[in-house]
Amino acid sequence: MKLEYMQKALELAEFSRQDVPIAAVMVQNDKIISQAVNTREKEQQAINHAEILAIIRANKRLQNWRLNGCELYVTLEPCPMCASAIIQARISKVYFGAYDLINGAFGSKCDMKKIMNSNIEVKGGILEDECTKLIKNYFERIR
Amino acid sequence: MKLEYMQKALELAEFSRQDVPIAAVMVQNDKIISQAVNTREKEQQAINHAEILAIIRANKRLQNWRLNGCELYVTLEPCPMCASAIIQARISKVYFGAYDLINGAFGSKCDMKKIMNSNIEVKGGILEDECTKLIKNYFERIR
After folding, report:
1. Which residues make Cβ contacts (< 8 Å) with residue B11, sequence separation at least 6?
2. Residues from chain B contacting residue A80 (CB–CB below 8 Å)
3. For B44, which of A59, A105, A110 is closest by C-beta distance?
4. Backbone CA torsion sign across A79, A85, A88, A91
5. B51 is catalytic
């Protein structure tokens, strides 16, 4: 785990305008192979969470749906859709920033690892304060 | 619920070659607005389950990420990724054919309705024998 990748995700998320600021960075062999921000509102696509878009782009780049050995850094705990996509894409490690008590699927609301019998390595709370603040500020701004 | 839409999904799934034959049909106001087959292997995209592709195409067609009032017909019980995507896309009703005891997320392996506190209407077992047979034949063929 390298903090610089979560820092990179945080920087990406800050560019978000219409959408909740969430970003993801996919790393393979200590190099970024894809990155994405949440664009559900902007693109009017229900599935356009940052994690899903990062997976699509990594699959395209590697020409392979299997992302064994890849590490995903994401500013917010993945929802059930994303957690299941991450596991099905064979990603090896996930590092997330803020915990999501309402939708988080790596322990907070449900445990997708357990549901899908996965041994993926997951660690939350990376740069947690910064990640939490970014989302909190967004919701205070739009209120 | 109309059997003709599941029949349509079955016909679509039969065209599948490299991939497990699963298809989905999205219906709004008694008209098909999108349809898709599973293309994970063909396109080398981990998220290319039939349901996800049907949602992407419906969102694009309606220029709206919310699919309230839409009904999804799918030949196999959705996995956690797809079940969560279906709920987040605000689809009103889901009809599936075969039950998936290993990955099914509308009751078989887990209950995404309960996990996500959703009141989406779900009914499984529509043309169950035909849907089950299609997948069974595929796995017997590739063995």
Report:
1. B23
2. 80-81, 83-84, 112, 115-116
3. A59
4. negative
5. yes
Helix (H, G, I), strand (E, B) or coil at A95: strand
pLDDT tens for the 143 residues of chain A, in order: 999 999 999 999 998 878 999 999 999 999 999 999 999 999 999 999 999 999 999 999 999 999 999 999 999 999 999 999 999 999 999 999 999 999 999 999 999 999 999 999 999 999 999 999 999 999 998 87
In this structure, what DSSP letter does residue A46 have? T
Sort out which chain A residues have CB atoms less than 8 A from B67's CB and list them: 46
Q: B67 and A46 in contact by Cβ < 8 A?
A: yes
- Partners of B82 on chain A (C-beta within 8 Å) are 81
Cβ–Cβ under 8 Å, residues B113 and B106: yes
Contact A59 B41 (CB under 8 A): no
Residue type, A103: N
Instruction: Report whether A89 contacts B47 (CB < 8 A).
Output: yes
Answer whether B46 touches A (CB < 8 Å).
yes
